C-alpha cells in the first residue's frame, strides 16, 4: 500500500520525459494551479471530507493513495483516470455524476500529474469550489434588484418587477399590459380565498378609484378567514395530510382533524413559518401544556402507516423502518426541498446527502410512534381529575368486593373440582366438526342455542357456522336440514356490509363448506319440510382447520340442542355440558356456575349493577381530548446506518445531526447518543429554521411563488436537488428568500409583495410571438391562466348556488359511506345532502378513496405529498359536471336563488347569473342565447349549462 501523502521528494522514480505534441519537453504540472481546480470544481461537491460519496474524499491525499485511486507514475493503472474517461466510444464517463464531463485537456492534465509522481503538497486540504457546490446549498446571496434600461416607470416600484423585467429583456420579451379590474378581483379572490368574488364585491372594487385600490383588496382578502382555509389546503398537500392510515386496512383516523384546523388558524393569524416548523416537529417540547402548539406534531404521523402488525421480528423491523422513512421524507421534502429518502440504502447518487445523513434524521425521529395522546392544559387536566377521582375510587372498591367474592367461590369450586369433572366424559367441542347423537325423536324444528363461544365463555353472540346438519334414523339416513330437501335455516345474523358476498345473511344448509354465517344472536333454528324422526346433528365452522390456524374462526363452546313439533314448545335432546371444556376459561366458568349459591349470585349481580352505575357516571364526565399527534418514547437502542437499507444489517452507529454538506453552518449540530428524545426533534427543527440554513427560506419563498403563479421559480417545489429543476430567476429567488427572513417568516407580507407587483397584475392574453420563446410563461411575459382545483370548483359551485355552509373547523364531513369490518370500504354518495355543503378542506380525506367531482378534477390522494397539483382534461370531468346528482342539485339551488333575487324576468336572471358565475355581464349574443334557453327549456336547464361552462372553472 502506498503512503497516504506523496511528495516529489519521496519519489525516487525515473520517469520518461513528458513531451508536448511539438516535441518540446512539457513543464511539470503545478498541483495548486492546474490539478486542485479540477478536483475542487468537478469532484469535491460529492467527495469531500463532509460529503464522502462512496466513502471517498478527494479533499486530502489519503483516499486517493490508500485505495489506489491514484498510483503515482502509473496513470493507466489509476482508477481516477478510468473514472473520468468513457469506457466505450460514444458513452459518457462514469464521473462526474453532476455537471459536464472533464475536457480532454483536463484529463490530460491529470494523466501528466500522475505520470510525474502525483505530487500532493504536504498539509494541503482542498475544499469544494463555490461554483461547484450545488446552487441550493450555497449561502443566500445578498442581491440588489437590477435597474434594467428601458423599464416602464410602473415596473420600477416593486423590486420583483425589476427582476422579472430584466429577465424578460434578456430573452427578447416584453410584459403584457395590466389586466382589467374585473379580471384582477376574480384572480385575487380565488388566489387568496379559493372562492369567487360576490357581485357586490366586484362592483365596489370597480368604483374604487384610489391608486391603492388593489392593495386594499389584497389586504381585505388576507384578513378573510377563508384565506387560511384555502392556503391551508396548499400546505396540507405538501405534508401529505390524510385521515385514514392507508395500506390494506385503511381505516379512518377520526381525531387528526385538529391539525387541519391548527394549520388554518395559524395561517389566518399569520403565525411565523419558522414557529410552525418548530410546532410540527417539536410542539410537545416547546409548549407541552398548550394544545394549540402541541397539536403541531400531528405532522409527523399524518402520513400513511401500516398498523396490521407482524409477529415476525424481521418484518416488524422492516415495517418500523418504512414508517420512519415516511417521516424522514416528509420532513426533508416539506421544509428543505431535499429528497433525503433517496439516501436510505446508499449515499444519494445526485445530491450531497450521505447515507449517514439519512440515519441521522432517523435518529432524530426514532422516538416517534403513531397514535393518540391526551392534549389539554394543566388546569383542564386538574378539573377533569377532580371529577373522576371519587368515581374511580368507588369503582375500584366495588370491583375489589366482586373479585374477593369470586375468588372465594373459585376456591371452593377447585376443592370440589375432581368430583365435578368426573361427569365430563366426552371430548370437547371441535370447530372442524362436532356431532351430537340422541334418542330418536320426531321433530319439525331443531335449534342450536349458543351458551358461550369457544374463544369467550361469557359471550354467546358472534359464533360462526359453515354447516349445520340434522340426520334421520334408518338404513338410509338423510340430512333433512338440507335446503334441497326443504330445510329452512333462520336466525339473527351479522353481515359485513363491505364484504356481504363472503357471508350468508341466513345459513344455507347446502352440504358445501366455505361460506360462513355469523350469528347476531344466540339461536339458529332449522325447520324441516315435514315432521321427521332424527337422532343426531352435526355442526362445524372450519372443516378444513385452515381458518382456525390463522385465528379467524369463532365457534360455539357451550350449547344446547332442542327440538319442537310446533315451534313453540321445545325439548332439550343434547348439550355440551358433559363434554370436557375447550379451554381453561371454560373450565373455570363451569366450576364457578356449579358452586355459586343463589345468594352469592344475587350479591354479584347487585355489585355489578353498582359498577355499571359508576361507569355510567364516569362516561358522563367529559373526556379529555385525545388527538392523533403521535406518542414519544426515548429510543431503547442506539441508531445505526442500515447497510443497503436493511434493518438486519447494522453498520456504523449514528446520532441525530444536521446534514454533513452544511456542516460549516454556525447552526450545524450533532447530539450525543443518549440525547433526550424531545431534544433531538427540537434540535432538528431549530437547525431547519436557522437563518444561516439556505434551504428553508428558499423553499418557502418558492412555494409562495408557485402557488401564486402556477409554477415555482424552481418548478419542483419539494426537490431542490440535482434531479429537480433549476431556478428560472435565481437572483429573484434569493432576494425573496431574504425577504422571508426580513419579514420574520410571516407569509402575509410576502403575499402582498408578490400580488402588488406589476408582474402579477398583468393580463393573461396570449401572444404567439412571446409564446414561441416561452410557451409556459415561466418568465412571466403574461399572467399564466389556470384551471381551478377540484376543491375550488366544488366550493365555487356551492357559493354561487348560495348554499355554502361557512362553518369552520371541527370533524370533517364525508362524501362517502364508510364501512369497516377489519378493513375499510368507502362507497361514494350518489346524492350528497346539505350536511356536505361545507368547504372541501373540511372533507374527511381518506387515502385510496374516490369522490367523484373532487377526484375527477385532480384532487391528489394523500397517500403521498402533492407539492404540485396536476391539471388534466378527461371525459369524466365533463360527465360529472353534467350528470352528477351534486351538480343537478346545485343547478336547482342556483335557479331558486335567481328567482329569489332577480325575480321572474329571464333577462334579469341571466344578468345576475353571469355576475355570480363569471364576475361580468353577458355580451349581447350571450344574453340573447341565455334568455332563449330559459324560455325554451326552463331556468334549471340554463343553470345546469352555466355550471358546465369552462369560464366558471378557469381564472385568467
From TrEMBL:
InterPro entries: Cyt_c-like_dom, Cyt_c-like_dom_sf, DUF1549, DUF1553, Galactose-bd-like_sf
Signal sequence bounds: 1-26
Domain Cytochrome c positions: 27-118
Presence of keyword Zinc: no
Keywords from the named record: Heme, Iron, Metal-binding, Signal
GO MF terms, alphabetically ordered: electron transfer activity; heme binding; metal ion binding
Protein name per UniProt: DUF1553 domain-containing protein
